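Continuing the batch. This is chain 6 of the set; chains 1 through 5 are on the previous pages. Same settings as before, nothing changed between runs. Recording input and output for traceability.
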Amino acid sequence: MSLEKRISIDPEIQHGKPCIRGTRIPVYIILEMLEHGLTIQEIREEYPHLEEADIKACIAFARRLVEGEEISPLVAP
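Output for chain 6:
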């Protein structure tokens, strides 16, 4: 999947946060909806102009952000 076709970053839109191209919908909003258990279909009902590929691009974008990151275990204080 070519993320450039689905995700854009523009300092003039949503303070430079990654958004679904052609919209002002930040990637994090879609990820938050998925986190809360909404399905792709439910998200599309909320945002009918989005395609399934837009939502999957948000997931792919997040994965690419963390795939090269070193994660340390969380330690309770």
